Amino acid sequence: MSAATNSNESYCTFTLASDVTAGGLPSEEEIAKQLESNDPKIKRHALKAAIMAMLGGEAMPRILMQVIRFCINSDDKPLKKLCMLYWEVVPKYQEPTSDEVLRAASGGQPVQRKLLPEMILVCNALMNDLNHPNEYVRGSMLRFLCKVKDEEILGPLIPSIKACLQHRHQYVRKNAAMAVFHAHRLHGETLIPDGPELVDAFINAETDIGARRNAFLMLYNESEELAIQFLAKNLDDVGKFGDGFALLVLDLTRKACRRDPNQKSRFVRVLFQMLSAESPAVSYEAAWTLISLSSSPTAVRAAAVTYTTLLNSQNDNNVKMIVLERLEKLKGKHSKILQELLPDILRGLSSPNPDVCEKVLDVAMALVTSKNVAEVVTTLKREVGKTTQENSDSSEEKGKVYRNMLIQAIHGCAVRFPDVAESVVHTLMDFLSSDGGMQVIIFVRAIVEKYPDLRPAILTKLVNTVDEVTNTNVMCVCLWILGEYCETSETVKDAYDVITEQLGEAPFIVQAKEKKAREEAAAEAAKGPKMVTKNVVLADGTYATQTVYSEPKVNPALDNTPNLRKMIVGGDIFLGSVVSSCLTKMCLRASDVGLDALTVKSMTVNSLLTMCGIVKMAEVTVSAQKSSLADCSERVTLCCRALLDPKANAILKQTLLSEGKSSFAIFLKSVQDKEGKTKEESKDDSVSTQADDLIHFRQLKSLTAQAGDLDLDDGSDLARATGYADGNSLLTNELSHVYQLSGFADPVYAEAFVTVHDYDILLEILVINRTPNTLANLTVELSTMGDMKIVERPQSHTIGPLDQINIRASIKVSSTETGHIFGTIVYEDASTQEKGYINLNDIHMDIMDYIRPATCTDEVFRSMWAEFEWENKVAITTSIGDLIEFLDHIVSSTNMNCLTPFDRNEKGSFLAANLYAKR
After folding, report:
1. For FRET with 807, which of 158, 193, 316, 817 sits at 20 to 30 Å CA-CA?
2. For all residues of the chain together, what is the average pLDDT?
3. Which residue, among 200, 221, 219, 203, has the nearest Cα to 211 in the 3D structure?
4. pLDDT tens sequence across 361-371
C-alpha cells in the first residue's frame, strides 16, 4: 500500500462489526465522555464508535487527546487492540493552511507535513509497549508497527525494535524481524541503514522456524547476496527450516537464475533436495522451478516423478487437476520421459471425481505407444471391471460417465493399435447390457468393419449375448451388425434362430389378460414394501421390537418374456423396422451361403409372418413413435417385395446386402480423416524461420538504413514485442470488450476492459486525469441492474496532474440474463477544494458474453435433451437460401458449436443438426 499523499487519505486494514452503529453513532461529545469512564466495556464501545465515525469521514479532533489520557495506559487487551486500530486511522499530521496550499498550487514550495504534537505522547506509549515485560504485548506492538509508514513515528522506536531481536521469546523475535524489514524497505537509508547486516547476524544465531523465515524474507528482498551466502552455508539443513523458508528459497532461486543463468549450478542441489519434501506445496513448487530452469532429461524426469507422486498422494481434486495440467504441458516436449511414468499416471483413475479421471485419460491416451499399449489396455479393462462391482465406491460416485470414458479410451487404443483389438472386444461385449452399452456396440461395429479376421469370433459372441441387451438403441445396432456381417451358413442360421426365438410368434400386441396382469403387478409395486412392527421375546427373556419389511411378489411369468419381444410389444416401431430389415438380409443371403432350399423357404415364411405382425402392432399400438407408422409400412413392404417378387429380388438384393457396409466404411474413413486433420491442425509444426535465411543485426546496419530506409524486420520485431505475432485476432478480441465510459472533453477520461469468466465479471477501469491539478478522493461508484452483485467496490484514489491509474472491480453474476452496469466518478480538486461528478456510460452485458462453444458426445446430448424435457419450434423467415450457409449463420450468431458432422458439398432441402454450448 502506497504512503498517504495528503492529509485526507486514511488507512483501512480491518472490519468492525456493525453493532456499534445500531441506532446511529454517538456524537463527539458523547464519545469523549464515555472514554473517561472507568468501565473498560464502555471505553471499548466508545472507541469503536470513534473509529467507525472517522472511517466515515468525520475528523473528531477532540478524541485524540481523550484516547491518550484515558486509554493509552490501560491493561485491558481488547482496548489495547482497538487503540492500535485507532492509531492507524487517526490523522497524524497538521492540516496545511490555505496559504500553503495556494503557494504549492502556484508552483512554489511544496507543502511540508508537520507531525501533530500529540503524536509525541503516542510514540512514548508505543515505546513503552515495545519494552513491556509481557512478550505478547511486545509482539502485538511489533506487528502493529509493520503497518505504520510514517518516518517521524518509526524513528524513535528503532532502538527498541533492534533490542527486540535479542528477546528470549520467539514470538517477539519473529515480529521484530518483520518490523526491521518493514522499516528498512520504507526508510532504510535514513532510519536503519545497517538492517541487512543486523538481520544477517540474527539469522545465523536464530533457531526458531518462524523467526528464521521472516529474517530470510528480509534478506531475500533487501540484500540478495547475503541471502545466497546464508543459503550456501546451510544447504544441508534447508529441509529442517520449515515450509515457509523452503518456498522463499524457491522464489530466490527463480529470481537469481532468471537474472543470471550462470547461477543455476548453485541451486541445483537444493532443488533436487526439495523434490522429496514432506510438504506437497514445497515439492510442487520445486518441480515447477526445476523445469523452468532446466530442460535436461534428468531434471524433467525428477520433476515428472514428483508430479505423479503428488497426483496419487493428494486427496484434493483441485490439486490433482493442477498437477495434471503441468503433466499435460510436459507432454508436448518430453513425451518419452512421461511414457516411462504412464503406469503411475494411470493410478490417478482411482480418484472418485469423474473430472479428474477424464483429465487422466486425456493425458494418458496421448502417451500410448505400441510398447505400452498392452499394459494400458489391461489397466483400462481392470477399471471397467471395477465399475460393475456392487460394493465399489467408485461405481456409485462415478457410474455411467466413468464407464463411458473408459470404453472410449479402449476404443481409441484399439483403433490406433489393431493388435489389441481382439483382446479387448470380447471383454467389452460383456457390458452390452450395462449403462455404457451404446459405447460398446459402436466400438464393436467399427472393429467388425475394420478387421474382417475378427468377425467370426465377434459375431458368435454377439449372438450369444443379444438376449441380454435391454436398451433399444443398442438392440438396433446389434441387429444391423448381424444382418450385415453374417456371411457364413453357420452364422446366418444361428443368428436367425436367436432373433426369431427372442421375437416369438406373432401377434405382437398385448392381450387383455396379459395387460390386466401387468396393471395389477404395477399397482402392487407402486404400494412399496409393507412394514410390520411387533414385540418379541429374546432368548435371555428380554423384550425387543422387531420390524419386518414385506415386498410384493413379482410374477415370474412376466419376467420370462425376452427383451426383444418386450420392446416390440411395447410399441417400438423403429426397432420393428430394423428387425424386418435384418431378417430380410438373412433370408436373401441364406441361398448364397449354401443353405438348402427348404430351410430358406421356411426362413422366408417365418420372416413374412413376423413383418406382418410388426405392421399390425404399429397400426394398433398407441406410442410416441406413432408418426413413424408410414415409414415402417413402406420399409416392411419393400422387404416383403424383395422376398416374394423375383424381379424386385434381382433389383434390391445387391443394394440391401452390400450398400450398407460400403456406406458405413465410407463413414468410418471420413471420421478418421477428420480426426487426423484435427490433430494436424493442433500441432504447431510450422517453420518460423528457414535454416538458410539471412540474420539481420540491427547494430551493424549502415547509417542510411537507420536514417529512414524501410526496414523489413520492423513489423516482425513489433509483433514479437507486443505478443501479437499470429495476427491481430487476439488484439481484436480484446478491443471488442473495451467500453468508453466518459467523453474525451471530460476532466476525467475513463474506459473499462470487461472480462467474463463463468459467474464472475472483472472490470479493469483506466482512469486518466486530464487536468493540471491533483484530484483527491477520486472514487468510481458503480451500480448494477439485473441479477448482478458488486463484490469488490473500487477504493478511493488520489491522481496527480495528467496521471492515470487502473482500478479493478469484481461483479458476481447469478444468472445468464441481460444486465447493465452504470455509475459515476466522484472526485475533489485538491487546489480548489471543489467536488466534481461525471456520469458514466452504461455497460450492457449480453447473454452471449457468457456462452462458450463446447463439445459433448451424442449420448450425453440425448440424455441432457431428455432431462430438460422441453422443445420449442420457432418459425424463421430469412433471405438465406442455402441450408449450410444458414447453419453457419446460426452457429456464429448464437456462439455455439455444431455437433452434427455434415458435408458442405452435398445439397438438400432438409437439415437436422445439434448445437451445443456451455458457460
Report:
1. 817
2. 80
3. 203
4. 999 988 888 88
Task: Please report which helix (H) or strand (E) contains residue 916, including its range.
Answer: strand 915-918
> Can you tell me the distance from the alpha carbon of 852 to that of 649, in angstroms, rounded to the nearest whole number?
52
User: Phi/psi at 166 (nearest 5 deg)?
Assistant: -105, 15
Is residue 600 over pLDDT 50? yes
* Residues 90 and 115 sit within 8 Å (Cβ to Cβ): no
The tally of CA atoms less than 13 A away on the side-chain side of residue 409 is 31
543-550/748-757 β-pairing: unpaired
Answer yes or no: are the C-beta atoms of 804 and 768 closer than 8 Å: yes
Angle 522-528-529 (CA atoms, 0-180°, nearest 5)?
A: 135
Which backbone phi and psi does 826 adopt, to 5 degrees?
Answer: -115, 130
SS3 of 329, please? helix
Residues 52 and 25 sit within 8 Å (Cβ to Cβ): yes
C-alpha cell at 573: 416401431
- For residue 736, give every residue at least 6 positions away whose Cβ sits within 8 Å of its Cβ, in sequence order, or none: none
Q: What is the pLDDT of residue 628?
A: 72
User: What span, in angstroms and rounded, lies between the C-alpha atoms of 423 and 849?
Assistant: 48
Q: 3-state SS of 450-474?
A: HCHHHHHHHHHHHHHHHHHCCCHHH
C-alpha cell read off for 559: 419376467
Q: What amino acid is encoded at 648 in this protein?
A: A
pLDDT band (50, 70, 90) for residue 175: very high
Question: Mind listing the pLDDT tens digit for each residue in 482-524?
Answer: 888 888 888 888 888 988 888 888 777 766 555 555 566 656 5
**Looking at residue 236, what is its pLDDT?**
77
The Cα–Cα gap between 759 and 775 comes to: 34
Query: How far is Cα 168 from Cα 139, in angstroms, rounded to an integer?
Result: 12
Helices (H), 657-800: 660-682, 703-707, 714-722, 729-735
Cα atoms in the 13 Å half-sphere on the side-chain side of 212? 20
**Which residues are CB-neighbours of 775 under 8 A, at least 6 positions away?**
747, 748, 769, 798, 799, 827, 828, 829, 830, 836
Give me the helix-helix angle, 437-450 and 421-428, nearest 10°.
150
Is it the case that residue 663 has pLDDT exceeding 60? yes
What's the pTM value of the predicted model, to 2 decimals? Answer: 0.64
> 751 pairs with which residues across the strands?
740, 766
